[in-house]
Amino acid sequence: MKPRLILFVDHAIAVGGAERCLLLLMTFLDRNRWQPHLIAPYGQLAEEAAGAGIPVHIQDLPRLRGSSRSLLDLWKQGLRISRTAREISAALIHSITVRATAYASLAARLASVPLVWHMGDFWLSEDEPAAKRVDRLGKSVFCSMASRVITMSHAVAEHLPCSNNASVLHNGIDLAHFDLAHNTAQNRANICKAAGFPAAAPIVGMVGRMRPWKGQETFLRMARQLSEQVPECRFLIVGGDPFGVQDDYEARLLALGSQPSLAARVHWTGQLADVRPPLAAMDLFVHPGAPEPFGLVNIEAMAMGKPVVAFGHGALPEIVLHEETGLLAQPGDTAALTASVTRLLKAPALSRSMGRAGRRRVQEHFRIERTVDQLEGLYQELVESE
User: Fold this and answer.
1) Superfamily of domain 175-365
2) What is 4-172+367-385's CATH topology?
């Protein structure tokens, strides 16, 4: 029996956490049963997918702003996606982002194929919208047009009007890629040398693109407080601006980090293709941001055997088990976050125990093979019901 074709649709150009999840899903599908194709604009995502042997159909999916031009774009690009779906005989369309879903919803109707809406955000806009009625209306429309709805966490599902019919599918990682063999003294020495850190300094770090909701400002406030209690501690901030937003946020962060109390203690790596070396060098990982719909980097840190300290909101309580794989602080309470980090720095045996428990949790619950197995089961149910 020939494999059924799945047409994925994503509007992203660069690769962030959501795009890494998509690449893993497509790569790990059983090619004897399912053949992924991808519609995306030309850019890093399309290139990496093509490099993984996935057929890519280059197509721009412009931002929709409610104008007559946007309506024309919606029709033209939706029609083009439907033609691609027919040409490759797609069994279904799987949309990843909200923007992609707007186009894919129309395309699926035109091509008469099922639509899987993979919702990975709390809101239809990038932040919580002022116009919540519009947000609710948009979600209701997408829910009605999708054959199946997938969310990456229970936290996201709770924001949908069709939450009772949504399948929660936690993201997974390739555990073999995050092998503990990276946790070597030589790797740590290399990171310390590059950062100008003392070789024996405890290292606290975070990973995230340079956007306000990722929490770099909170991390720096925590670092300033922590430096008074554990002056030998050093701080790694990993991440850049892969989507080219180009506002003044990064400049504000650099100014904050250059204050006398932090300048010699904080190292910025910028955007990295491989986060394993800095993760391996950290003694513990901090996730200080706004509520996350998932937070892939937390399971990457756990896979590297690092305890996680985070605010207990969004999907983080679904990932980090408080007092077992890390510590969850009261949301927004920087002092509580600092106290949790201080506690683990002063109890290295407890910290190592939590790190080991975190890797076990990833092995049991967040392996990409488990995620893909669940997804393939959903696909099978869907195509058999059509």
Assistant:
1) Glycogen Phosphorylase B; (3.40.50.2000)
2) Rossmann fold (3.40.50)
pLDDT tens for each residue of 302-353: 999 999 999 999 999 999 999 999 999 999 999 999 999 999 999 999 999 9
* Helix extents (H) in the chain: 17-28, 44-51, 68-87, 98-111, 132-145, 154-157, 185-195, 216-229, 249-257, 276-281, 296-303, 316-319, 334-345, 348-365, 368-385
C-alpha closest to that of 74 among 100, 48, 51, 49: 100
Do 119 and 99 contact (CB within 8 A), yes or no? no
Residues written for the chain: 386
Segments making up each domain of the chain, as ranges: 4-172+367-385, 175-365
Q: Which H helix or E strand runs over 94? A: strand 90-95
What tens digit of pLDDT does each residue of 40-65 get? 999 999 999 999 999 999 999 998 87
Tell me how far apart the alpha carbons of residues 29 and 377 are, in angstroms, rounded to a whole number.
Answer: 11
Fold equal for 4-172+367-385 and 175-365: yes
Burial of 265 (0-12, 13-18, 19+ CB in 10 A): buried
Mean pLDDT, the chain, integer: 93
pTM over 0.85: yes
pLDDT of residue 125: 66
With vertex at residue 291, the alpha carbon angle to CA 295 and CA 162, rounded to the nearest 5 degrees, is 90
